[in-house]
Sequence to fold (492 residues):
Amino acid sequence: MSKPKLLWFQSISCNGNSHSFFNYPNLFSTLEYFDLIYHPLIDTNYGLEEVLNLKVDCDILILEGAFNKNLFKNGVNILEVAEYYSKLAKYIITAGTCSTFGGVFKEYDTQNISGFAFDIENHTKRYDIYKDKLISLPGCPIHPKWLGYILLMLVKNRKIPIDEFHRPQELYGTTVHTGCSRNEYFEWKIDTKGWGLKEGCLFYENGCQAPYTKGSCNKILWNDISSKTIVGTPCFGCTEPSFPKTALFETKTNMGIPANMPLGVPRRAYLTATGIVKSFTIKRLEKRVIDYKS
Amino acid sequence: MKIADKKALKRESIIDAALHLFATQGFYKTTIPDIAKKLKMSVGNLYNYFSSKDILAKEIIKYTSEVLGDKIREVNQLQIPTKDKITKIVELYFRMSQERPEMIEYFLRVYLSHREVFSDGCEGMVCVSGFITEIMIFFDDGVAVGELRNQDFFSAFGLFMGYLGGMVFLKGEGVLPKDIESYIDDISCNIYNALKVQ
Fold:
């Protein structure tokens, strides 16, 4: 049986998702299942010229980078090439937030730059054409295991339940908050006293978007060991259409009340619960985890 | 009427009677037999509802906080400018001090004055969250629509509720030369000017 043909096609990109995927521990064994037609950064059977001249075939198309209908490379309209291979492909994976929603590159030209099938949270005109084969893997960058998992699910013809933005629910069904090592501090409303400390939550003052960002960064750890929030940096919400925002290290508050509630939590319920919790002092959580002696 | 409903009504009547006695006679001068006598019920039966005077005191503050919170919630749900919401909150607070003076008096003269009674079980905001939550929502909405200046919650809360509490306290002391409701417009205006976006 022939292997599915895999084509990795880039538009306006920083290569971040490619480099992230190259750190996938099972990269080579996973690629064994595929016939890698083309990747812009590694040696493949075909070159860019053949791809741009529409000379290759593909079953699974991975798109990396944002799209601008006016972008030409080597005299060829990149969006038209992407659409050509999208028609051929059985599945389209948008790898990263730029190819999914527009992401960081959209900030450069908000009128003309977008994701392939989404423009922030809105559908592009391509959505209706390709929605039945579309899988979104937003993230800045994607976690290599997210893409590895989806590729293997596809090769095994397994069903992949998706959400309204076509993100696989297995990977994006819960918030990044799920699994965070700081959850105890969140529960008792104790904010961190500095970046990189083991103690404290980053939601109340330090900009953490994990409680309202869909993703699995604290379940499928980065480099198998950690995550932004575990090391003491706020989640930037990079898997959401709203990424990027500004002032990422500050929580926007209205008179001390977070402007964004944890996902799906009514404001009244949140304020009631946190108002009560804040009334108590948990001495254990006020202390350093490790008491360094100087 | 179901037994559970009857019990709930009785429970509320005990809270009402105790609230009135605590606010007028003082917390320590009021005894459980005083409350039972006012309700024409036995002391033993009253203990079936509340096992101690301290527990009753805590239930009363939760009850008054909920009543006040529910009224502010109605204001929060109105689609009107923040300035008008301030006037409505001042109105309802002062009206409550006229119509149910025991509620405000209880808050000022029992809850705030006898913190030792409330130290176990009513820490911080625990027993007044019904009211505090609605004030938070009022401030949050005011900032979100660009009418109130963004600042620390407590600096705004202290200005608003400290002001109203102070006026009701002065009324209780009998030193206000005019009826408290005649101050509504000026006080609402002062609060708005202090909190609005500059």
